[in-house]
Amino acid sequence: MELDSFVRHFASGMAKADSLRPQAKSSRSGRTYGPGIGPFAEDRAVELTVAQMRALFPVVYDDLRCQVAYPGSRQKCDLVFADPPTWAVEVKMARFRRDNGKPDDTATKDLFSPFECDHSAVSDCAKLVASRIAPNCAVVIYGFDDPLRPLDLMADAFEALAQTRARLGSRCSAPLTELVHPVFRSGRVFAWRVSPR
Fold it and tell me: Which of 129, 135, 132, 131 is nearest to 167 (CA)?
């Protein structure tokens, strides 16, 4: 797998899933959110994206599995290629606003927290390299544009913090455009190869 191609394919799969106008429901209130991939919880958004990646790129992603247990752990890795695994990928969402446009203050914790119990993108780097789940590992962050929280600045901050836990490869990215939800109309998918320091 080439990580740059994977990022482009992930963005294509997410855009295709979005174009089908799926609607997420709140697990607490039962409220139905506006159509589009943006309001979905991360795990479900990844599942919808992977389904479209398989449809768009037949054969290429037949061996891509979601939610695979880490060896000797109950924790799950978001995406694993092949069996035995050749790649393991952790995915995080950078969504700084809620469906109604109000700020979501938990987003920065989900990305940057140094604490393992927060399951952030930064702590995922350490988890990937320590687990030895696969010979190749990566972190993917998909995010939605917000004028007050630029995605490039988020990526810079992630790189600075993540490099305290693991070695990062070059940043790969692909755009998300013309999405259907009025709050989550555009964004980007980023990825970095992760290896031990």
Answer: 129
Facing residues of 88 across strands?
80, 137
CA–centroid distance for 8 within its chain? 13
SS3 139: strand
DSSP conformational letter for 182 = S
Q: State the virtual CA torsion across 77, 80, 85, 86 in degrees, nearest 10.
A: -120
pTM over 0.90: yes
List residues bridging with 80 in a β-sheet.
65, 88
Question: What does the pLDDT look like over 3-45, one tens digit per residue?
Answer: 999 999 999 999 999 999 999 988 777 789 999 999 999 999 9
3-state secondary structure of 26: coil
How far is the C-alpha of 64 from the C-alpha of 80, rounded, in Å? Answer: 6
Residue spans per domain, the chain? 3-195
Q: In whole angstroms, give the CA distance from residue 148 to residue 151.
A: 10
β pairing state of 64-69 and 187-195 = unpaired
Question: Cα(first)–Cα(last) distance of the chain, in Å?
Answer: 22
